[in-house]
Amino acid sequence: MIWEEIDTHAKEWVKEAGDRIRLSFEKTLNIESKSNANDLVTNIDKEIEQFFINKIRGVYPEHRIMGEEGFGDELNSLEGIVWLIDPIDGTMNFIHQQRNFAISIGVYENGIGQIGLIYDVAHDELYHAIRGKGAFINGKPIPLLKESTVKESIIALNATWVMENHRIDHHLLIPLVRDARGSRSYGTAALEMVYVATGRVDAYLSMRLSPWDFGAGAVIVEELGGVVTNLKGEKLNFLTQDSLLTANPGLHQEVLKNYLKIDQ
Ligand code: 2AM
Ligand code: CA
Ligand code: CA
Ligand code: CA
């Protein structure tokens, strides 16, 4: 009951936020960089996060909020109901392409994902799942994931992780990219998770993401029988940054064991 009510509010807010983002295409963006010159944020990222926080606080003052742009609460536990909000996932795409970005909202209770909403604004496609009630695209049920092997899979990952980098031994990823049927880089973790959920790609991996990047996607992928862990095969905790590997169960196991050399 409570989840249906929260879901109804969240969907309405996400659509309104999408309208605001579409209107912003006509205006000049104010763009700043964060941790490095290519880590970008705009006035719209900040405005949309504040929009959600005002809406949530208005209806659910007891809920806590973790948002990428820092307007939410400082959290050091996931007790109670916590909203994980990424107002624009794929900001670089938003700025350069006005597509390939999404709003991502996960609602967790005591660390367990209950609701995941990912809104592909440019396509007006809302992906959503309520734990135990299925996952949907614009209200239409999404079928369960099919199994696949590396040889017949498309794997989503950023090319930077296959170059020498300080987060992973790239020699592990070169054979994976070579053996896979294809590789893709979309630059938006939320949509890449949705693509796993809908079978458009078979796996997605990243070295460095935050709870607002994967909070909503985890609910949607798991609802369809997919597996979501870090690259060591461990559960995510949704309070801290982590790496990510998400895929159908057979492929997830094959990538962990045969490529990342993790024995479980
Ligand atoms: P963002 O657009 O919300 O920042 C890009 O490959 C994906 O990784 C996006 O989902 C992006 O989310 C995320 N990401 C996480 N940390 C990042 C960082 N420090 N710089 C750029 N993208 C980051
Ligand atoms: Ca960002
Ligand atoms: Ca993000
Ligand atoms: Ca973001």
From TrEMBL:
InterPro entries: Inositol_monoP_metal-BS, Inositol_monophosphatase-like. PANTHER family: INOSITOL MONOPHOSPHATASE (PTHR20854), INOSITOL-1-MONOPHOSPHATASE-RELATED (PTHR20854:SF4). Mg(2+) binds at E68, D86, I88, D89, D213. This is Inositol-phosphate phosphatase. It comes from Neobacillus bataviensis LMG 21833. The keyword Magnesium applies. GO terms for biological process: inositol metabolic process; signal transduction. Signal peptide: none annotated. CDD domains: IMPase_like. Keywords: Hydrolase, Magnesium, Metal-binding. Its cofactor is Mg(2+). Pfam families: Inositol_P.
